[in-house]
Design goal:
By secondary structure, this protein is α/β, with parallel strands linked by helices. It has two domains: 236 residues, Type I PLP-dependent aspartate aminotransferase-like (Major domain) (Aspartate Aminotransferase, domain 2, 3-Layer(aba) Sandwich), CATH 3.40.640; 120 residues, Aspartate Aminotransferase, domain 1. It is 39% helix and 14% strand. It is built from 13 helices and twelve strands. It has a seven-stranded mixed sheet, with helices on both faces. Strand 4, helix 6 and strand 5 form a beta-alpha-beta unit. Helix 9 packs parallel to helix 13.
């Protein structure tokens, strides 16, 4: 085996050809593929509204602004997530409060959330770690009773469902990532879905400087008004084209990801010192996560055998210097998050990963477990 890459994009020569046409046309933004990609995303997720943005972080930030989060508010986020989840809260002046997670899935749940609730709690951002959907229905009901805003961080979860409903449709908004390692890659890029028209209109204005009319709505070129502060969080049209074509093929991509996950599940099920979440057809399998002891030894062994992996994530947010110092957080704030952070490994899972490569990865992990 030469080497097994951690990630490979599902971009075809025809996609590149179309992107080249867009670049040559000179019409690089506000084009037809932005509309097409948004429409296809609505169709795929069955959300009423969708907005393309420059990154998932931008989508989370815009969502927090649309929720009205401000200084003095507390927003609960999982301790085990990318720092972008908490940063989006902090950008508004609100305070990120870190909830513990399940030590196997890396997802937070209602029990851990309730421990962090105060009279200052105004919102929750849920993360569907590795594509594993949270137990979101009970959290949604709790939020409605408490009048708490709910945002879903779906950066790992395009194609993940809970009770046959696509994630991102339970909260006020759902935010997606199209970073190069994700299920769909546009370079940088992201999207927000919502079923609330007012939230949609607010985010639409906020992502483009606060301008009240987009190009198609202007009777005269350059004539518009700015009614609120806004940002430049737009996606280019050639990025949108890349995303659109991949999303059109995504059902096949997802089937392949699930087949690979089943194979990992079968070949690693009896491996000593390895744990992983039970297979679920609701999971979009951004990666295949495993948990193990002596992670550094496992990582070195896999790298030595030319198997490239990643970690999602190696440090809980409460242990990051910025948050630890700012809020004077305790040393052992969330024990499960620490366990997950020290033991998780992300194995590759993408459509171009062959059966032979999956078998090779599993054979090496099994080989190491017997030593």
């Amino acid at each position: 085996m030469k080497k097994v890459e951690f990630s490979k994009q599902n971009i075809l020569p025809l996609d590149i050809k179309e992107v080249s046409k867009i670049i040559k046309s000179g019409w690089l933004t506000h084009g037809k593929y932005t509309d097409l990609f948004e429409k296809e995303l609505r169709k795929y997720t069955k959300a009423k509204y969708s907005i393309l943005v420059s990154s998932c972080t931008a989508g989370l930030h815009l969502s927090c602004l649309a929720m009205g989060f401000k200084k003095g508010d507390e927003i609960i986020v999982p301790d085990m997530t990318h720092t972008a989840t908490a940063h989006a809260v902090e950008y508004t002046g609100a305070k990120a409060v870190f909830a513990d997670v399940d030590p196997i899935t890396g997802n937070t749940n209602l029990n851990y959330i309730k421990r962090k609730i105060t009279n200052k709690t105004k919102g929750i951002i849920l993360v569907h770690m590795s594509g594993i959907p949270c137990q979101i229905e009970e959290i949604t009901k709790f939020c409605k009773v408490k009048r708490i805003k709910l945002i879903e961080d779906c950066a790992h979860a395009l194609g993940s469902t809970y009770k046959r409903k696509h994630v991102g449709n339970y909260g006020q908004t759902g935010c997606f990532s199209f970073y190069p390692t994700k299920q769909i890659a546009t370079g940088e890029g992201g999207a927000v879905i919502t079923n609330d028209k007012q939230i949609f209109l607010k985010i639409k204005r906020l992502k483009a400087f606060g301008i009240d009319k987009d190009l198609k709505e202007r009777k005269k070129a350059g004539v518009y008004d700015v009614k609120s502060l806004g940002y430049n969080y737009r996606m280019t049209d050639f990025q949108a084209a890349l995303g659109f074509f991949q999303l059109k093929r995504y059902k096949k991509n997802l089937i392949k990801r699930k087949k690979i996950a089943k194979k990992f599940n079968k070949l690693l099920l009896k491996t000593k010192n390895i744990k992983f979440p039970k297979y679920s057809n609701d999971n979009s399998y951004f990666i295949f996560p495993i948990l193990c002891k002596n992670r550094d030894n496992v990582l070195k062994f896999l790298k030595k055998n030319k198997i490239f992996t990643s970690i999602h994530y190696a440090t809980p947010l409460s242990k990051m210097s910025f948050y630890k110092k700012k809020y004077k957080l305790k040393l052992n704030l969330n024990k499960n998050s620490l366990i997950y952070a020290k033991s998780n490994i992300s194995l590759p899972n993408y459509p171009k990963l062959s059966n032979l490569e999956v078998e090779y990865i599993c054979s090496k992990i099994n080989q190491l477990s017997k030593k």
